[in-house]
Amino acid sequence: MVLTLIVVVFIFWGIGTGFFTQIHPVATVDGEKILPNEIAQGASQMRAQMASQYGSSIAAELMRQLNLSQLVLERLIEQRLVALEAHRLRLRVSDAALAQDIAANPVFQRRGEFDRQLYEDVLRSNNLLPAEYEQSVRARLTGELLRAMVMRGVYLSKAQIKQEYDRRHERFSLAYIEVPYTDFMTQIDPSEQQIEQFYKQHADNFREPERIKVQYLDYDPQRLGQGFNPTDSEIEKYYRANLPVRFTHPEERRVRHIFLSASTDPAARSAKAARANELLAKLKQGADFAQIAREYSDDSATRLNGGELGFIGRGRMVKAFEDPVFKLKAGELSGVIDLPSGFDVVQVEEVRPARTDPLPAVRDEIVKGLRLQRGLEIAQRERREDFREALNGRSLTEIAQQRGLDVTETPFFAVGEQIPKLGADEAFAREAMKLTKGSVALVRDRSGNAYLVRALDKEPAHIPLLKAVHDRVREALIQSLAQKAARERAAALLKQVKSPADMDAVAASAKLKVQKASDFDRASQTVPGIGRVPELMDTAATASHVPAMLPHVVEHDGDAYVVALVGRTPPPEKQWEQDQGEFEEQLLGARREAAWNAFLSALKQRAQIDVDPNQLASALGAV
User: CB–CB of 495/562 below 8 Å?
Assistant: First the structure.
């Protein structure tokens, strides 16, 4: 089992490939090869990392959302590009920096100190040579050095940050007349000639997609590994290899806090500090901490649950917060903690001492992990063997009977439609669609699980006859005509409204009402009563004066709106003071990340990158 903190290195930086230099590459980057074993290993390690970090069930759901092969390939391409550019710029990580980074990894420490023997044991248990690991760490550090160089070039002044904040959080007040399209639907009764004409003009909207019918075998690793009973020696070896990370837990404290944000202005900070001390005095007199947090804390993420932060360990919070908190006993209050972003008052609810899980307590968990590992090995081997058998003409039903597997036969399905036992798995469906009738392939789902699949039949995409979709066409025509009528009605009303002051009279004449959306934040992109309409926000933001009628009818979900901008103000200074620190950090971080991505894009544009899709598919098929 590869340890999480080691896996991270290899997902992004790979390992040596000397034994595989004669294998046809999946891709080349300016002549540098990316080989199939790197794709397969990266995918396997990513699954292991996700499972270790989030647990098997959550990891499986997350992996279903990923195009695993493309994600791993993109990471490896970026790695090659970064390494080549770092070499061109003559960037180099010293041996001392390399040693310091490895020594700082808690996986290789005993009682907080680097242990050479443990280092070698952990690498050996994960089938890694020190030279391989150190090469990958050096590559990672070099990449981080280049990334830091790019990001350091991004700077924003306080004025630029405030200007961007004001732009994003400008507050609007609108008045609008809503013309619902549903008001017109009962008035519309299209003729057969209109329906036929509409269908001819929009036939492609009713196109039936390509569909396929398949059989597949699921090599469930949990079931395949269930009969494996690891020896005491194997269990103990796994336990010792994973002891520093999985089974050793540092001291933790469950805490609540009350946070009062404060700007860098001395007067404002002094006022907030005084307020924090007032709240602390109330708490010392017996006030309920959770209630005070709900009333006064500026931390929106924890305020509603009484300031509950849960269990925290060392290294998760800033040092200025942790140091006083870890001196407290259960039930004790901190003083007022002075932080760069404001002031904190903390109550420790429970202390969980540092502990190491004894082997007997985690034996079942280890057995489960080893069985899953064995199941993955069995699944990989049997899948390969059965794929060869299926290519030679053996039916999946016969293979399933021999293996004791269930064969699943699907009805016809298209991309995005439900597949028995797999749901609407687009990754599986898209790969299956590439098969021809009778052909066999290993097909992966979103989480990277591979299935042996035979295509039983295919239906090409086609436009059905009108009689097959008549009701759908009629309904679509009625809705289209109703939306057009709403749009035309709103346009006629807009012509009558010369200024916002005219809206009430014009609405009354049309037996409609003027509705209000008052003092809302542009950042939400949502107009109360209408919905998410970013283009409306943009138009309101660029209006030359206030009040003003917006020049065009606004449409959303088929309804039409006549809209007036009646108020436009910058965000309150208090809001800026509360958000300043976090916003500055987020904006600068986003701009720096954008600069790095732009840098990578420029590297990709300059580079000669060739990808072999067939090799990519086979690389993952081997996992």
Answer: no
Q: 459, 487, 504: which is the final residue of a domain? A: 459
Q: Residue 84: which of 157, 158, 7, 28 has the closest Cα? A: 28
CB-CB contact of 454 with 396 (8 Å): yes
Dump pLDDT digits (tens) for 506-540.
Answer: 999 999 999 999 999 998 889 999 999 999 999 99
> What are the φ/ψ torsions at residue 568 (nearest 5 degrees)?
-150, 115
In a domain, 575, yes or no: no
Number of compact structural domains in the chain: 4
Residue at which a domain ends, from 300, 329, 353: 353
CATH assignment of the domain containing 42: 1.10.4030.10
- What is the residue whose two structure tokens read 């896996």? 7
Verdict on whether the full-model pTM lies above 0.85: no
Evaluated on CA atoms 163, 165, 168, 170, the torsion sign reads: negative
Neighbours of 460 (CB within 10 A): 8
For residues 45 and 7, the answer to whether their CB atoms sit within 8 Å is yes
Q: Tell me, what amino acid is at 520?
A: F
Token digits for 200? 């001819």
In 265-358, which ranges are continuous DSSP H helix? 266-284, 289-296, 319-325
CA pair distance 77, 593, nearest whole angstrom: 18
DSSP state letter for 115: -
Structural tokens at position 384: 């390969």
CA distance 436 to 72: 27
Domain-embedded: residue 116: yes
DSSP state of 126: T
**CA pair distance 540, 534, nearest whole angstrom:** 10
Q: What percentage of the chain carries pLDDT values higher than 90? A: 53
The single residue listed with the structure tokens 């006083």 is: 324
